[in-house]
Amino acid sequence: MKKKLNPVSILILFISALPLFLPPKLFINIFYLAALLLIFFYSGLTFRSFLIFFLLSFFTSFIYIITFILNPDKKYLSGNIISIALFSYKNEYLIKIKIYEKLLNTTLASGIRLFSICLISFCSAYLIDIDNLVRFLMQRKVVSYQNGYAVSIAFQSISDIKSEYSRVNYLMKARNIKPFYKGLLPLLVYGVRYAQLAAISLVARGFNEERSIFRKVEYDKKEIIAVSIISIIIFAELLLGWFC
To answer: Residues 153-171: pLDDT tens digits?
Structure first.
């Protein structure tokens, strides 16, 4: 079972990702991404999941770069022109591209920034505990406690419904029942029963807006080291005038 990002890691994540949302620069501090990825992997992010998120982020940023180059703003069409030649064949280049230097620098900076933000967002959404997020929203009166508990139960029931679907699918294959939609009725019945039991459990345990929930927050030396490293990087960049 994967770990979850605890509040200390979320605080580190917010502080470290903050420079990515500042005005665009061509070079992004690689130490931030390295520290964030270490936290993600330590929190339970698998390499397979990271590879999927990496490809999705790369595809998103690549589409953005192509779109920005094909439809540039007029203010970037000035300055030096750079010639880019690709795929040499018999001393000739098959593809020749001419692009303004200002447009190229701005596009690459924005594309890298978009890639970093997408990668961090995907990894964070994968690891953040939904229950803690819903409780935070209920605490701040963003959502009512009825809707909040309903959302928590819905997310927790996904794994149970998946296992029930596998069981129904196996039984359908064993009885040679071909149309897949015939297995929807057992799933619907299971979902209704699950919702009834969950509602009875909430009432029996006295869940309401006045109920207090206590949770133990744990952190270790690795997170303290990560906080120290990121604080040193931010302080150094403040001295160098990166944020000014």
So the answer is: 777 777 788 888 888 888 8
Tokens of 176: 């040679």
CB atoms within 10 A of CB 71: 7
Q: Are 194 and 157 in contact (CB under 8 A)?
A: yes
Token pair of 216 as six digits: 């133990």
Predicted TM-score (pTM) of the model is 0.62
| 42-66 tens-digit pLDDT | 767 788 888 898 899 899 999 988 8
What long-range pairs does 131-139 form, CB within 8 A, spacing at least 24? 131/155, 131/156, 132/4, 132/7, 132/215, 135/213, 138/209
Burial (CB count <10 Å: 0-12, 13-18, 19+), residue 141? exposed
Q: Which helix (H) or strand (E) holds 239?
A: helix 221-240
Residue ranges per structural domain of the chain:
1-129+221-244, 145-208
